[in-house]
UniProtKB/TrEMBL annotation:
Lineage start: Bacteria, Bacillati, Actinomycetota, Actinomycetes, Streptosporangiales
Organism: Microtetraspora glauca
VOC domain residues: 4-129
Name of the protein in its database record: VOC family protein
Taxonomic superkingdom: Bacteria
Pfam families: Glyoxalase_6
Family annotation (InterPro entries): Glyas_Bleomycin-R_OHBP_Dase, Glyoxalase_6, VOC_core
Length: 129
């Protein structure tokens, strides 16, 4: 095991409004203080009663999915909580993930999160826990 699912992130035009929709659907608390995230106009969270966290990320010029039209695909990504982003990087690349981070890191530079695509092209992030 490399990490733990931290949250599922949905792209949207209005993060707080969509978090409210899912709160009405699933229950829970919108934007509960949590040291893992900075809450702002571009990011909202919903902590559900089951312990699952949904996050909502503003995307400029958002184009909603049109099921099942592949020209307008489903839009979400997984955040995976890991103890060591650099070590997990090596592990997920060995499993077939592709780094989507622009360029290489400077020597000695460490990031708190990095972006990848799974073998089918779905994005996910490794996030320092």
């Amino acid at each position: 095991m490399i990490g733990h699912l931290q949250c599922v992130v949905l792209d949207c035009p209005e993060p707080l409004a969509l978090a409210g929709f899912y709160r009405s659907l699933l229950g829970g608390e919108v934007n509960r203080p949590d040291p893992r995230w900075v809450l702002d106009d571009d990011w909202a969270t919903l902590h559900t009663g089951s312990g699952m966290v949904l996050a909502f990320q503003r995307v400029p010029e958002y184009r909603p999915p049109r099921w099942p039209d592949p020209a307008f695909p489903q839009q979400f990504h997984l955040d995976i909580d890991v103890a060591d982003v650099d070590r997990a990087h090596e592990q997920v690349v060995a499993l077939g993930a592709a780094s989507l981070d622009p360029g290489d890191l400077d020597p000695g530079e460490t990031l708190d999160w990095r972006v990848y695509a799974d073998p089918a092209g779905h994005p996910f992030c490794l996030v320092r826990g």
